[in-house]
Amino acid sequence: METSIVLIFLSVLAVSYYFIKRQFSFWQRYNVPFVKPVFPYGNLKDVGKKFHLCEMLMKFYNENKHRGPFVGLYFFLSPVVLLTDLDLVKSVMSKDFSVFQERHFYHNEKDDPLSAHLFAIDGTKWKNLRTKLTPTFTSGKMKFMFSTVLEIGERLSERLNTVVNESANQCAEIELKNYWARYTTDVIGSCAFGLECNTLNDKDALFREMGRQVFEEPRRSMGLQLLVIQLKEWANYFGIKQLPDKPAEFFLKIVKETVAYRELNKVGRKDFMHLLIDLKNSSNTELSTITENEIAAQAFVFFIAGFETSSTLLSFCSYELSQDQEIQEKIRNEVKNVLKQYNGEFTYDAMLEMKYLDQVLKEALRKYPPLATLTRGATEDYWVKDNDGNKLQLIPKGSTVYIPVYAIHHDPDVYPDPKRFNPDRFLPEEESKRHPYSYLPFGEGPRVCIGLRFGMMQARIGLAKTLLNFKLSLGSNMNGINFSKKQNILSNEGGIWIKLEKINEIQK
User: Fold this and answer.
1) Which of 61, 280, 355, 475 is the most exposed place for a label (fewest CB within 10 A)?
2) Entry pTM
3) Beta bridge partner(s), residue 11
4) Contact (Cβ atoms closer than 8 angstroms) between residue 346 and residue 68
5) What are the tens digits of pLDDT across the range 177-222?
6) Which residues of 372-406 are buried (b: 16+ CB within 10 A; e: fewer)?
7) Helix residue ranges, H only, 191-287
8) Any bridge partners for residue 42, and if so which?
9) How far apart are CA 305 and CA 492, in angstroms?
10) DSSP class of 24
11) What DSSP line would sit under 369-384, residue for residue?
């Protein structure tokens, strides 16, 4: 009996060893350059503990970009692709999009309905939904929502003014990310849901708390999140959820209540929620109407992406500006001069005239892209070829492809002296010199961020209104940037501490 147990154990051990060895020889069999894996992590050892994923991918990118257009990695036992060539990035994101249209992002529509949003879903469902939602984000719709965002931007200035007035010497040191997040929460709450969130005046407002929990209290560590993505079929089978329960329940409830109220009272607003309700109730079968859970999922991702990515951009931008008064003053002067041309009115067209402000925000997105890594999935075998059409390397069907945005943005061959904050990189003549796929804060191609116009609009308004009224300098609690290891969106461990000082009317 004991001998049989030992033999069974040894047999299982031998099969396991063979399986692991075969998995870890995947890229060798395809004759692809690869980074040597370590069991059981593959190449993910210390990700989520010592390093953010983007920092680890940058290390592999820098060490291997001379070896070919992509390098093979292992996320646990699963082989994945890391792109190292910008022409291949272009092919994956645009030129050969039909092969790489999937994100390979985990979602579970049955057990976790909010996870089945536009960012995560694939195939025909994504294509149809993207087509339906695109009209919400045209420049015409941005103009319509501009006055709402501007009003909230003015409320932000008033709130910061109150904070400074309550401190000694008209100067206050605050964790500014908190205020940026409250500002963008109010903006998205109003423009997406038609709701007055009031988080600028109430730091404990429920909308803000629920949004905070999604990012600051994730359901599982980054390492486990990546494992779920690699085993998404099994995760779906066992009903694994992606989102924390409380925020998921809150957003499902608030969306259902909003839909019910608007339908009962025939409320119509030109906002994101109104378009979704129209799709739900459409009698046009070609529109392929959507369910209430699908409405909730799209409203949820618009809210989450809209408030977190923009507040992240504004926070890192504030950090850089706090160390460079010359850039600050240049923005301030530009905003004043443009407003003079528009009789002191901050209009949508006036905002578009603020070119240097735009350069500063672009440089902040270059140095600190909120989504530091993008993914695509190969739906068929794909041969990478040289300029003469000769086959070089195969990306096998089913592979997850990683686009290391942070690494590309910090590649000295693309952006000389990449650690330096230099808005002049985004002068038109400088941009024209670079590869068109060397700047990817919003992605590119058919799956480019649908809300990029909206995100940039609220960032421009928030930054312009703040710099008109306050001087930013580095807070005493800031000790450089150290990325949080547990969050997917880039954020600084310990927040962004900035000293705010009122600019008096004479200076204005």
Assistant:
1) 355
2) 0.90
3) none
4) no
5) 999 999 999 998 888 777 778 888 887 777 777 777 777 666 556 5
6) bbbbbbbbeebebeeeeeeeebebeeebbbbbbbb
7) 206-216, 222-230, 232-237, 245-265, 272-281
8) 38, 75
9) 18
10) T
11) -SS--EEEE-SS-EEE
